[in-house]
Amino acid sequence: QLSQRLKAVADYVEPGETVADIGSDHAYLPCYLVKANKVSQAIAGEVVEGPYQSAVNQVKEDKLTRHIDVRKGNGLTVIQPGEVTTVTIAGMGGPLISEILEKGKDRLEGVQKLILQPNISAISIRQWLQDNGWQITNEKILEEDRKIYEVILAERTTEIQKLSQLELLLGPVLLKEKSDVFKQKWEHELVQLLKIMKQMEMAEQSPSLKEKKKQLREKILIIEEA
Ligand code: SAM
């Protein structure tokens, strides 16, 4: 049974695409995509030996070795330009996902679609996408096991999409939808930030703290505005 989080990533894959799942761990996502007849060929990339072996074993167990190629390597180095149409990266922090995309930019030639699921700091991914000619065409937010996850679908664009600070932080699509889970996430975040602000007010003032307070105040204002 695939987690709801990975199912949300899989839902953005259209039949006939070829997929590389980077940081695949057990290769649950590519295995699901093939079993659901969404894709016939996929690559599972993993950099760490243990998870790499888990992926190899899972693919064997599911008898999918003809459909899924498990490759060991760092980030996008496991794919060749033009080899896949879609790249998925899930279950890592936003800054790590952005770093993988940035370092592997040259491998993204021919890739039409990125499906990204950051556990934290989706803002760094949205910023990277905006800076590198990708448009956010859909987003989803969901709760599973008391954790809230965001999924971002991005496609290539020639038009420059300039997101506001509000959209970068909260997500252009999620901001429009304002679902209950979205409200829950940002109300919680706001409470946490206000607590930190209060602690900062009590601390001894220094120039660096002043700057941090300024940044925090800006973030609080953005969330309050939403
Ligand atoms: N994608 C799966 C999911 O969402 O359930 C697994 C998530 S797991 C928390 C993150 C995986 O990414 C780990 O197995 C880790 O070894 C792998 N990983 C981290 N950095 C990586 C990189 N630069 N290249 C490939 N894999 C990486």
Automatic annotation (TrEMBL):
One Pfam family, short name: TrmK
Official protein name in the record: tRNA (Adenine-N(1))-methyltransferase
UniProt keyword terms in alphabetical order: Methyltransferase, Transferase
Gene Ontology biological process terms from the UniProt entry: methylation
Species this chain originates from: Jeotgalibacillus salarius
A GO MF label: tRNA (adenine(22)-N1)-methyltransferase activity
